[in-house]
């Protein structure tokens, strides 16, 4: 049974930043105690079924979600032809910073603990933005991410960061190990390897495992809600 208040209908909004408008779907449980902004991966969008599945499970855990396209429709059309903007991490990172600043101006959102969920190249953008707003961003989760693309920003990240990588995604796993070595020694972090999972976590049950891990991480770092720890048999 889904928890009371977990069935959330997303609201579509236009977020104005720097002369453009980005489309976002915001889902806010009635008793939300945290808010997670999703930074999508290469060639993906807020309509990504994988990220929507994770967002639904976060909503069930009393965590609000913001699924937002960091590129305009015109930019997405260009990117579909050239694939150049999806790897423009400075651009995507600054867009995410601007979205974060917009959230801080919204009275119904700015009192919630804020986190980022980044997939693939979106994870690099999330880490860049977390480094830019260390007092605001309280947790980051990277799913099959390319944190190496965050470059020198890695050494500035203060937010507790969870790296989730498929056990069969060997190239990305190696890049995550290298990126983790560049974090500050005082930055809390963890690497979770999902057995038998490839880059997109398409294998049965693997994406659910990602969502549970992410939900627990955000519940620990964004809210006072206990993490998803199975109850002991009585």
In short:
This protein has a single domain (17-222), classed as Alpha/Beta hydrolase fold, catalytic domain (Rossmann fold).
Describe the structure.
The protein has about 230 residues and is an alpha/beta fold. The protein has one domain (about 15-220): Rossmann fold (3-Layer(aba) Sandwich). The chain is about 35% helix and about 25% strand. The protein contains 6 helices and 8 strands. It has helices at about 50-60, 75-80, 90-105, 120-130, 170-180, 205-220; strands at about 10-15, 20-25, 35-40, 65-70, 115-120, 135-145, 160-165, 190-195. An 8-stranded mixed β-sheet has the order 1-2-4-3-5-6-7-8, with helices on both faces. Strand 7, helix 5 (about 170-180) and strand 8 form a beta-alpha-beta unit. It is globular and about 40 Å long. Residues about 1-5 and about 225-234 have low confidence and may be disordered.
């Amino acid at each position: 049974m889904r928890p009371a208040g977990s069935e959330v209908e997303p609201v579509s909004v236009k977020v104005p930043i720097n002369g453009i408008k980005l489309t976002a779907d915001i889902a806010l449980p009635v008793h939300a105690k945290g808010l997670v902004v999703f930074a999508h991966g290469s060639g993906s969008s807020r309509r990504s079924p994988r990220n929507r599945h994770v967002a639904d499970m976060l909503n069930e855990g009393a965590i609000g979600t913001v699924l937002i396209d960091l590129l305009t429709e015109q930019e997405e059309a260009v990117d579909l032809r050239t694939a150049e903007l999806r790897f423009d991490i400075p651009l995507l990172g600054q867009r995410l910073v601007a979205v974060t600043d917009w959230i801080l101006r919204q009275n119904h959102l700015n009192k919630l603990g804020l986190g980022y969920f980044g997939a693939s190249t979106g994870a690099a953008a999330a880490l860049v933005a977390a480094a830019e707003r260390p007092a605001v961003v309280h947790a980051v989760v990277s799913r099959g991410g390319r944190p190496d693309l965050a470059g020198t920003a890695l050494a500035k990240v203060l937010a507790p960061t969870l790296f989730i990588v498929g056990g069969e995604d060997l190239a990305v796993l190696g890049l995550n190990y290298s990126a983790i070595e560049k974090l500050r020694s005082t930055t809390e972090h963890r690497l979770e390897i999902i057995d038998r999972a490839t880059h997109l976590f398409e294998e049965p049950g693997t994406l659910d495992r990602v969502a549970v891990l992410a939900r627990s991480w955000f519940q620990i770092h964004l809210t006072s809600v206990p993490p998803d720890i199975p109850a002991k048999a009585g």
